[in-house]
């Protein structure tokens, strides 16, 4: 799973772990186009190198009111990712098998930076995954688990 860590130079959510993404621009034809453009701007992942599988449920960020519409896609790996120096401090990957481990996400109360947070948290390789990113990952994992349980073996 591709994740990024934001720089301290961005307007909101400084230093937080997130998916590539951002706000709609007038030239974006759809939210899917926005997601692909933002992924390209933040990580260098070209839209033509991505196969979008689908869209999952929206997630609302309580602190800002933003509505996140997540898209699930497959990209080649390895890939020559390029972090945008203004927005992206780090690009890293969490294996899906790690995220599928039911013990990996714990409901916790924490002070993370300037935020009090109560919800799912996953510590992975020096990164703290929390907030909307953790909620979206937990939702994706539940969808994959439901699907895997429905597939005959």
Task: Summarize the structure in short.
The chain is of the alpha+beta class. The chain is 24% helix and 30% strand. The chain is globular and about 40 Å long.
Whole-Å distance between the termini? 25 Å
Q: Helix segment count?
A: 3
The average pLDDT score comes to 92
Q: Low-confidence spans: pLDDT under 50, at least 5 residues?
A: none
Q: Supply the helix-strand structural class.
A: alpha+beta
Account of the 3D structure:
The protein has a single domain, classed as Nucleoside Triphosphate Pyrophosphohydrolase (Alpha-Beta Complex). 24% of the residues lie in helices and 30% in strands. It is built from three helices and ten strands. 19% of the residues are buried. The mean pLDDT is 92.
Write the layout of secondary structure elements.
Elements (H helix, E strand, L loop, with lengths): L1 E5 L10 E2 L12 H13 L7 E5 L3 E2 L6 E2 L2 E4 L13 E6 L2 H4 L6 E7 L2 E10 L2 E3 L1 H20 L3
Antiparallel strand pairs: 1-2, 1-7, 3-6, 4-5, 8-9, 9-10
């Amino acid at each position: 799973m591709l994740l990024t860590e934001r720089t301290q130079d961005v307007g909101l959510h400084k230093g937080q772990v997130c998916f590539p993404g951002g706000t709609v621009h007038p030239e974006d034809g759809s939210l899917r186009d926005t997601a692909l453009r933002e992924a390209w701007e933040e990580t260098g992942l070209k839209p033509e190198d991505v196969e979008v599988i689908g869209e999952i449920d929206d997630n609302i960020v309580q602190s800002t009111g933003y509505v996140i519409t997540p898209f699930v896609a497959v990209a080649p790996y390895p890939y020559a990712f390029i972090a945008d120096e203004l927005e992206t401090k780090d690009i890293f990957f969490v294996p899906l098998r790690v995220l599928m481990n039911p013990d990996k996400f714990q409901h916790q109360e924490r002070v993370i930076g300037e935020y009090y947070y109560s919800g799912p948290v996953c510590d992975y390789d020096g990164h703290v995954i929390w907030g909307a990113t953790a909620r979206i990952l937990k939702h994706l994992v539940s969808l994959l688990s439901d699907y895997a349980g429905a597939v005959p073996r």
